[in-house]
Amino acid sequence: MVKEITRDIKQLDHAKRHLTTSITTLNHLHMLAGGVDSLEAMTRRRQYGEVANLLQGVMNVLEHFHKYMGIPQIRQLSERVKVAQTELGQQILADFEEAFPSQGTKRPGGPSNVLRDACLVANILDPRIKQEIIKKFIKQHLSEYLVLFQENQDVAWLDKIDRRYAWIKRQLVDYEEKYGRMFPREWYMTERIAVEFCHITRTELAKIMRTRAKEIEVKLLLFAIQRTTNFEGFLAKRFSGCTLTDGTLQKKLDSPSPSTNPFLEDESTPEMEELALEKGDLDQPKKPKVPDNPFHGIVSKCFEPHLYVYIESQDKNLGELIDRFVTDFKAQGPPKPNMDEGGAVLPSCADLFVYYKKCMVQCSQLSTGEPMIALTTIFQKYLREYAWKILSGNLPKTTSSSGGLTISSLLKEKEGSEVAKFTLEELCLICSILSTAEYCLATTQQLEEKLKEKVDVSLTERINLTGEMDTFSTVISSGIQLLVQDLDAACDPALTAMSKMPWQNVEHVGDQSPYVTSVILHIKQNVPIIRDNLASTRKYFTQFCIKFANSFIPKFITHLFKCKPISMVGAEQLLLDTHSLKVVLLDLPSIGSQVVRKAPASYTKIVVKGMTRAEMILKVVMAPHEPLEVFVDNYIKLLTDYNTETFQKILDMKGLKRNEQSSMLELFRQRLPTPPSGPEGSGSLSLLAPTPEQESSRIRKLEKLIKKRL
């Protein structure tokens, strides 16, 4: 019933919709037919202003007839529109060719309104029409440039490269005045002219440099590169780079950081860098990052194949710089002692790295590819040469001490100046070289990071200055070892005197012995000088203290075993001397200093452990050797040393006869734990087997150490 009632209504709805569509389509058809006729007429009359508006309307109306292309009349109108578009394109190109002929002289006068309207029509037509107009106009506009700067012309060479850039600047101004309003703004014609000029210039320069490669000198090359990069900077300020399709982006520059390290400073001009270094003006607020330059390398990339000239020049310059450093060092001599400000870093070090930075920035502006790798290789070469020739080569040489020393001469030495191997100036020189090596080590690490930032990402793995950093670490170790050896050698005569004294004849315990006074004197002479000159590198002074303690204490114990025989009073005197040395060694890091600092825990632990062992040895020597069991148990308790040789040395120090020693050694061997099976017998060395509690403690310590390192 509902279908019967609504059937007529539904038919009326369909009829209304179809009628509306038919009326609309007929109106569009009327507009299309009239528009095509008008379009053809306006095209013949070159009324491009009206054509631009009409053509867009016709194109929009034609879109409604895509589904009616099967109707012959509609298809015919569509083909007429296509023909009109083709004729328009050809006609506009012909008009531009007539106005701006490729050959011959340019027509006088400015652009016409007809051409301006023609550009609006070209925007609607096939994009190839617009590209052809742009291409022909730019080619005609730059034709004069190709003639003026031909390869055989004098102005084409690098020394007159400024004239190229001056010419294009004049042309751009001329274009803006004459043709600025003819082309639509969204065509970016000024930028396109500049970009095409850059492509032509890069090609022409590459060609002429290949031909005259032997005439390229480093100064000429750098002059041309500087002028070219300045021009590229001018383009970046003037244009957005939106027309570029193969522009390379310049890496962002880093903002400054408050440090004397040249590789942490803002990358500005060399003059600004030198001024900042002179004034020490390193705490300036950070500058905003410079935006990317899309024109970087658009011309200057042509210089990259010839950068070997620059690299060879830097190799030569750095070689001369190192030679000058060597000559200046010999002429000026070692740095003067400076007790107030600590050991001075050699000025040549800062000069070298400032020069490195200048080269790195300059080269990175030219190329971020293989030339940067070649420059890195040069840097590595002269970092090693600096370490060898300037640092290691100027470390004082140690001389072997002469023999024939007598006890009286050793004990009668006054100030110890005859014994000390290095003078005050030599000690300061070692500290200065050590401080310089530490500066070089830190700065080389920064240099590696900066080089990796500058080079292409694909080449970062090829930049590795670890070997050079290891070289400076070796110089540091050598310097510390020299300081230790010097103080160690100065104390040797006193220890020799200790071992040759008749300790069995000592009748009473007095003040500390002369040999102790001598050791303390040498420590007080050397350590304050070393500490003050290593004030800027405190960790290396701590290393010096630790290495000296690790060298002196075992040597002291070795000489202690040579003191034989020893009476009870002699052992007491030695125990007093040992305690005096222990106190001095514990105070060694701050000895002679007005500011008392607590010694590092790592150093204190070494001194306490070593000197306590020396005290225990003397306490065992002082103990009565009868009854035998008590003496052996006392030895094991105090020294916890199951080495038979050590026990034998204790017996020799006590002056016991061989028959007495044999019975005591037999008893000592009986108290030893069961030796492990294998080739290691119960001979010279038998270690105490750890208890389960001790083993558990060792495992816990090992676990803590592993966690700490991880």
UniProtKB/TrEMBL annotation:
Protein name: Vacuolar protein sorting-associated protein 53 homolog
InterPro entries: Vps53, Vps53_C, Vps53_C_sf, Vps53_N
Compartments (UniProt record): Endosome membrane; Golgi apparatus, trans-Golgi network membrane
Segments passing through the bilayer: none
Region feature (Disordered): 250-270, 671-697
Source species, domain of life: Eukaryota
Keyword annotations of the record: Endosome, Golgi apparatus, Membrane
Annotated source species: Erinaceus europaeus
Domain Vps53 N-terminal: 1-329
A Pfam family matched in the record: VPS53_C
Residue ranges constituting the Vps53 C-terminal domain according to the UniProt record: 572-656
Family named by the database record: Belongs to the VPS53 family.
Main location: membrane
Coiled-coil segments on the chain, per record: none
Membrane topology: Peripheral membrane protein
